[in-house]
Each structure stands twice: as C-alpha cells, then as structure tokens.
Amino acid sequence: MPDSLRGADVATVRPAIGSGDPLPGTAGFGGAVDDRVVRDVLGREPVYLGAAGDDRDWSFDPTDFADPELLDAGTVVEPDGERRKVWPLPTPEVETDHEAAIDAVREAVLTSVREPDPEGLAVAFSGGVDSAIVAAGVPEAPCYVAGFAGAESHDVEAAREAADAMDRDLRIVEFDHDDIVRAVPEIARATGRTNAMDIQIALPLYFVAERAAADGFDRLAVGQGADELFGGYRKVVDPESDHRVDADTVRGATREVIQTLPDQLPRDVLTLRAAGVEPVAPLLHDRVVDAALRLPAELLASEAERKIALRRAATGVVPEPVRTKEKKAVQYGTYAARELDRLARQAGYKRRMENHVGQYIDALLAE
Positions of the region Disordered (predicted)? Predict the structure, then answer.
C-alpha cells in the first residue's frame, strides 16, 4: 500500500479517525494513514481503489487502474478491506443571529484565502465574487481567465472589469477549436469522465491551468465550493417546486447540493493536475465549511439574491460591482459549452441525436 497522505499530516488525521471529527481543521485530505485508506468528508482529495488482482490497493490517480472505484467521501478502509463511514457531513446548530453568522463567514473566508503561500501561485479568475475573494487574499498573484478566441465572452468581460476595479494583473487565455479537440481526450483520460457536462466544465479550467503552468506557476487558486456551500444555485431558491432537488427547504436543498461535492471535485482536481498545476481551494477549508453549514436559510438564497452571507462577508474586501455581480456557469461564460456543441454538430452529431456531444467526445477519444 502506498505510504502517503495528501492535504494534511498523519498527526491531524489519525485522531480524527478515532473521534469521528469530520472537520479537524484541514482543507481536505486523502491517502494512507497507519495502513488505512481515507478520504475526507467532502472528498476534496480524490482516492481510487483497485479491483482484486491489481498491483496496488489504491491510488490518487484513476489511470493506475483498468476499472478504478472512487472511494466514498468520509470513508476509512481498514487493512482487512472493511469500509467504515467515519465522517458524515455534520449538522451543527444554526446561527440565528445574522450578524454573528456573517462575521463567522467573513473570518473563516478571509483567514482561508490569506493562508496560501503566494510563491508559485496563480488565480483562476472569472470576475465573480468567489474568485475575487480568493484573489483578494493573494494580492500579488496573477489572475487568469479563459474565453473562446475572437469573442468577448461573458467571463472575459467580467474578469476585465473586476481586474480593473481591483488593480490586478489579468492574463487572458484564448482557446480555439483546435485547442478543444486537443484537450477533450486529455481531460477525459485524466478524469475517467466522458459525459458532456463534465468535459464542458473542465475545459476552461484546463486551459487556464495549462497557461499558468507554462508561465512557471505550479499551483492554481480556485473558488470551488462557494456555490455549493453558500446557496449559489438557482435550484435551492424554491426547492419545493424545483424537480432538481429532493429537499423542500432552502437549507435542505443547500445541504443536498453540498453532498454532490465528493463526485464533482475529482473532475476539477484531476483536470488541473493533468494540466500541470496543483489546485488550491481555500473556500473549501474546514473552517469555511463549518461557518457555511451554520447559516440560516435567509442568508443562503432568495428570489432576489444568492450566496447572501458570502456577498455580505465580502463587503469592503472586493469592489462593490464585483461583490454583487451575478455570473454564468463557467462552461457558458467562457463559451466552452457552445463551441464544443458546435464542433459536435460540424462533425455530424446533430442535436436531434441522443447525447450528441457525448457521442462526439467518444469519437475524439477513439481517434
């Protein structure tokens, strides 16, 4: 069994196994501890298990196995192979004092975004509140945004405005159809995913990370987790009438969305590593998770505003237009989804066909 642990030291994780503490003060962890295999409560470090007969029991890299199995978040695998769910997502008491709740978010977020060593660090910057807060913590780090070449995409436009307002060094990464055709198989092989949505989301991350690595940076700070933790999705606003969630309350729907992170994060982590950088996700630190889980519904999302507590906590940290700006999802704001769809149709995979983009991705992999 490989003797390695990522994201935390053994001295922190070992007692957390014994106590069942799901938030022991880390930014996530995974790997080996005393001949056990572990993955933290939110699955911030992907860990894969091999099948019987494989040369190794587990790996951080799914390509090490013919049929890798993603270890469930919060799980410990004992030396005899027994799996135990040690760390369930906690249910802390709700903070009903709104000012106290916002202060807790502010302290947790600012501590976390200021913690990374700026040496060798760049920032994935889309001009929204999440990436702006991350960038504010490391004021000397350059900011990178991706967008389709020849078109002022929503993300590029927003990033320009935010970078100007924050007086930041912004580097624009333009990608074209040839870049997409080249990157899709690389992302798919690295992540083990070929569905259209995952590839669309990963493409801009890949291009930003690739450029940052070429510029000499080995780590990329990202705003991952903010939408899930702080009520950033439209579907949590009125969950009772939204078929995309099972919960019927804002807090319940937000918790449901948070529990999708262990499946989403491996896509992003493996994409960034494949492009040559190590991800840094300060908004996923345990202290931020704890503060977010304590938020009342009124500070998560409403018809008028989403990520309410996070935006209020960002007052005075990022410029006002950036703090309040609503943004498109990265696959749409960069035109990655639009142009991948265009390439699929140009290759003969029409929209009337079932999963036409997915079929095109499979074809690129087969070449």
Answer: 1-20
